[in-house]
Amino acid sequence: MHDALELAATRPQSAALRSYAPALLIFVVLALVPPIALLGPEGYVLSLTTRMMILAIAVISLDLLLGHSGLVSFGHAAFVGLGAYVTGILITEGVVDAFTILGCVVAASALFALVTGAVSLRTSGVYFIMITLAFGQMLYFAASSLSAYGGDDGLTLWNNAQLLGTGVLDDPRGLFYAVLASLIGAFVLVDRLKGSRFGRVLNAAKSNPTRVTCLGFDVFRFRLAAYVIAGVLAGLAGFLSAVQTEFVSPATMSWHRSGELIVMVILGGMGSRNGALLGALAYVGLEELLSTYFAHWKLIFGPLLVLMVLYAKGGLGAVLAPLTGERPRG
Amino acid sequence: MLEVRDLEAGYGAARVLFGVDFAVREGEAVALLGRNGMGKSTTVKALCGIIRPWAGTIRLHGRDLSGLPSHRIGRAGIGLVPEGRQVFPTLTVEENLQATARPGLFTLPDVLELFPKLAERRHHLGTHLSGGEQQMVAIGRAIMTNPTLLVLDEATEGLAPLVRADIWACLDQLKSRGLAILVIDKHVRTLERFADRLVVLERGRVVWTGAATDLHAYGAVVDRYLHL
Question: Could you report the predicted ipTM of this complex, rounded to two decimals?
Fold first, then answer.
């Protein structure tokens, strides 16, 4: 009996390892981008890839809510914008130490997520979508009215964050690897969370919150914790975005941006192991490719996304499922 | 261990329970009997906090649970196997069981040994299981919370006779390990064998409590309230 149990337990381990293949391959390719970029337009390639990775961090964080917990947050870009604004304001005020800024970004994002999550997670379905949208727009208009920090026009950073007193983050290669390390960290963190009991309770509550509650788990607290974690990760993406572009604008937290993040999650495949990563990279890559060749590229991009949703319901994660062995989880 | 006194509950303005009284002692199996609509499932829902009791008290190990939210009742030691099984469809069998695990007597290997079929299908998603297997997961999931009282609402509803026999055999094992069980099921004859005591509900009130072996009194109850 125990032999059978052990056999059943070990059989899927190779399949689980195989399911990490796309992410591993992406990380290896990304790590090789800076030396390869030397052969071409280095600045453009590094800048584009860094932007992709920053967005991937935001999308991974949103997938924890949307794909794994069934919480359709339509205000997730607000956390990205909040992280960017905290960074921008602190640098403008002369605080340039990256860890100090990061600490403030984490605190601000966590606090905003805690307060807005405590209100919005008391609702569900379309009401949750609307209330997260409302909080997002609230922050958008608050940023637009910050006349001391650029208001509608945004805020240009005349200085940049310093990592341990060095200008590593000012160097495109240094920033690239800092962002890659953050991306790998975010991926591993969210993947570990999804595989933990915490993640399983969240996933179970997605289909039947009442049942989870009856088994002794306070679904609200679990969801609030996930909301705060996702908010902090999105805030980190905002910090990196501000450091990369040396500019912050209310547009980073508009509802359009939140919508784009949702599209990236869906494109990659909600709740799948590699989906958020694939979705963000594919979205930015496709956007960049089409806009290079077509003036009205959105006319092509839109129908492509519609076709993707119609014919590849599990997104890119499902398209790669035969190779990765990952099963769609409905 | 569990004491329910003068429990009143209902839905909206419709009262269903009119002062239900019963108790479950340590290690005892108690069956709630009654025709459809007599308040069996409502009693379970009130017990587990899914609906808020209007009046009365529910005490587990002397602690008043009435009016507490469901998750605190679950933590206090009541493990519910709901009607319709409601297995988490996006989790595998193993994940369904691990999601609810709390430290105590029952661990994952125990549950898989109790239900060998689940060991074979531990990596299958909840949706890819037969009705019987789903019910095994639902029972296993409740056991993994290490409750002091296992509550089953329609324990074998819609299951084939052979699968029903498997479920009852498993419940017998749990009972022999000292777990107190409160069960609702349509198969009264099986409950008569399984339960130490029967509690008969009629229009939201307990009209008879006793052992099935109390044949003289029980025969009249069966004729009058259960129409078997």
Answer: 0.83
